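Below is a typical protein record.
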Amino acid sequence: SRAPISAKLVANMLSVAGADHIITMDLHASQIQGFFDIPVDNLYAEPAVLKWIPFFVLRYTHTVVLSEVLPVNTLCCRVTSIADRLNVDFALIHKERKKANEVDRMVLVGDVKDRVAILVDDMADTCGTICHAADK
């Protein structure tokens, strides 16, 4: 299984090193803020991304927002929110793993043919999911 880094240990190390305030971007789990004994501001990329897409993605109204389906999937809610706010469609990827960081099979649900796909992932340690999804 994937062993997580001890967030509390990292929080303590940052405090001991002299940090008196932490600014993060899209924490994987918002509960991590509670491990710190100093103020933590968790910023979100979504508002900036939503402003950026209409200006820099050609034919953005013909895009589709794509997400992986996870067992406990707040990411799907986030992706449908992004798609709704951009007034575009969304699609899903169902992924089956043989073992950690090794995808056995991916199934695409939704219409992405001849469309620009905006791939959204909750965590990119190897970027394998995004690369695999881009090949679909």
Q: What stands out?
A: The CA atoms of residues 46 and 82 lie 8 Å apart. The chain has two domains: 7-43, 46-135.
